[in-house]
Design brief:
Adenosine receptor A2a; Rhopdopsin 7-helix transmembrane proteins; GPCR_Rhodpsn_7TM; glycoprotein; about 350 residues; about 0% strand; mainly alpha
Amino acid sequence: SKSLLEIFEIIVLIIIDVCALTGNSMIILAFIIGPKSIKTFTNYFVVNLAVADLMVAVLSLPFWIAYRFDNNIAKSMFFEYFISIDTLCGITSILNLTAISLERMFAVKCPTRHFNLTSLPVLIVIALTWFIGIALTAPRFLTINNTKVFKIYTATLFFCAFIIPLVIIVVSYCVILYCAISMMRESCNQTRKIKRELRVAKTISVIVSLFLICWSPFFIVNMTFIFCTKDCYNSFPVWLVHVTKIMHYSNSIMNFFVYGHRSPDFRRSFRAFINCDVGLLQERVRSFSESVSRVRTTSFRHQRSHEENTENNKENIRKLSESTRRSSKSENTRRVSKDNKLLIAK
C-alpha cells in the first residue's frame, strides 16, 4: 500500500505529464501553423526543445510514474532504456539552450551576418544536438556492469553535458550584455533593434534560469548518490531523489508558460487553442496550406523550368550536331570535287 505522500507524488507527476503533453504539442503546432513572424531561428531551437520535452512526456515520465506504482519495474530490462531516454532528453535540452544562447550572441554581435543567415546551418546544429546527445548516452550500456567505469562515465557526462554548456551559456550572455551596452550609445534605429534582440535574449535567459533551477539539484544529488560510500548510500534520503525527479520533470512544462507570457505570436496561438477559436485556427491552417502550396508551386515551376532548359539544351545540341554533320558533309563534297578536278586536269 502507498502512503499519502507517495499518492500525492504520483498525482503531481500525472499532472506534469498531461501538462507537458499538451503544452509542448501546442508549441510545435503554433510554430507549424503560426504566422511567418514566429518562424525565427531562435524558435527553431525552441521547437526542438519542445520535441525533447514531448519525448520526456511520452516515453520517460510514464515509465517513472509506473515505477512509483511498482518498484519491481527497476528489475526490468526496460528500466535502463527508460534512464537512457531520460538522459538523452536532458542532454538534448541543455544543448538546445546552449545553441540558442550562441545564436542570440551571434544576432547581437553580428546582426548583418545573422540577417543573411539561412536555415541550413540552424538545421545542422539541431541535428548535432541529437547526435551529441546519443553519443553521450550510448556508452551507458557498456558501463553498467562495471562500477568503477560507470563512475568515470557519470563524471564525464556531468562535465560534458552540464558544466561545459553552462560555461558557454554564461559567457554568451555576458557578451550579449556587453554588446547591448555598447550599441545602446549608437543611433535610435540601432537602439530599437538591439532592444528587440534583448527582449528575445531575456526570454531565453528566463528559460535557461528555469532549466538550471529544475535540473541542478538532480545533477548534484545524482553525483552525490553515485560517488558516496556504502554508509552514505544506506543513509541517503530517498525522498530527496524523488523531489529532484519531480523538479527536473516539471521543467518540461515551463517553456509553454514562459512563451505564453512573453511571446505575442505564441500567446495568440495558445489563446486560440485554449479558447477553441475556430476562425483564427482556420486562418492559420489556411495560411500554412497556402505557404505549402506556394512552396510546391515554386518547386514545380523550378522543376518545369529545369526540364524546359534541359529540352532546350538537347535541342541546341541536336541542331549543333546536325550543323556539324552538314558542314562535314559539305567539306567532304568539296574535297571530292577538288580531287576530281585535279584528276581531270592530269
